[in-house]
């Protein structure tokens, strides 16, 4: 005997509540496709660092060879399907990708820091004293010569050889953020 719709079995309602809705399943599917798209964009070396099933790795490599948009979209859907079926830990992969993005942001921030120091050194003689104070052991004389030569090159319209060499010297003096965190707890900031 069938019950009317208003008389549902309470156990059926509990089962339905524990299952994700169609919207939630669709959102999860799109998130896996987006993750798959990021995996396709990774370099060979980075992809090799991830512990992915062989079928998934092959699907990613195949997606790189596809140039048609519709075919690529279908391949990304397939990659998402494989990640669901293989029960790949998408959260761990996403965290790894985010960490890699963070490292590149840190590296970019470090390069900007070096550029700011170079510009300050060229614009203000007092910046040299501050640099030596913040980074003891720096070769003051070498930096001073590079600054002077970079200023002369700029004034004469010559190629910026000393300007570039100054950047490299600063790279040797000011440690990268990850190395700096291991060696000293305080960070190097400029005003």
Percent range of helical residues: over 70%
Roughly how many Å is the radius of gyration? 28 Å
By CATH, the architecture of the largest domain is named: Orthogonal Bundle
Q: CATH class of the largest domain, please?
A: Mainly Alpha
Can you summarize the main beta sheet? none
Classify the beta-strand content into a percent band: under 5%
- Tally of helical runs: 10
Arithmetic mean pLDDT = 82
Distance between the termini: 79 Å
CATH topology of the largest domain: Diphtheria Toxin Repressor, domain 2
Total domain units: 2
What is the approximate shape?
A: elongated
Task: Name the poorly predicted regions.
Answer: 179-191
Task: Describe the structure in your own words.
It contains 10 helices and no strands. With 191 residues, it is mostly helical. It has 2 domains: 21-88, PSPTO4464-like domains (Diphtheria Toxin Repressor, domain 2, Orthogonal Bundle), CATH 1.10.60; 105-183, PSPTO4464-like domains (Diphtheria Toxin Repressor, domain 2, Orthogonal Bundle), CATH 1.10.60. The termini are far apart. Residues 179-191 have low confidence and may be disordered.
List the keywords.
single chain, 191 residues, mainly alpha, Diphtheria Toxin Repressor, domain 2, 0% strand, elongated, disordered C terminus
Secondary structure layout plus pairing:
Blueprint: H1 10-18, H2 22-41, H3 44-49, H4 54-65, H5 69-85, H6 90-123, H7 126-134, H8 140-156, H9 161-173, H10 177-183
Helix pairs in contact: 2-4, 2-5, 4-5, 6-7, 6-9, 8-9
